[in-house]
Amino acid sequence: MKKVLLMNMPSCIKVYGKSALKGIIAPRPLVSMAELAGSVLHAGGDCKILDLQVVEKPFHEIEKTLNEYQPDLVGLTFTTLLFEEAKKVAKFIKEKYPSTKIIAGGVHSSIYPEEVIKEKNIDIVSMGEGDITIQEIVKNKSLKNIKGIVYKDKKGEIKKNSPRELIKNLDELPMPAWHLFNAKIYMNPKAIARESPVGTIGTSRGCVYGCIYCNKSVFGRAFRAKSATRVVDEFELLLKNGFKEIHVWDDMFATNLKRAKEICDEIIKRRLRFTWQLECGVRVDCVDREFFEKCAKAGCYKVAFGFESGNDHILESIGKGATTQQARNAVRWAKQAGMETSGFFMVGLPEDTKKTMDQTIDFACSLGLDYAKATILVPLPSTPVFEEFEKKGLLKTKDWSKYNFHTASRVYDHPTLDWETLGKYYDKFHKKFYFRPSYILNRLIRSIKKKELLDDIKMAFTTFVK
Question: Can you tell me whether residue 301 is helix, strand or coil?
Answer without folding.
Answer: strand
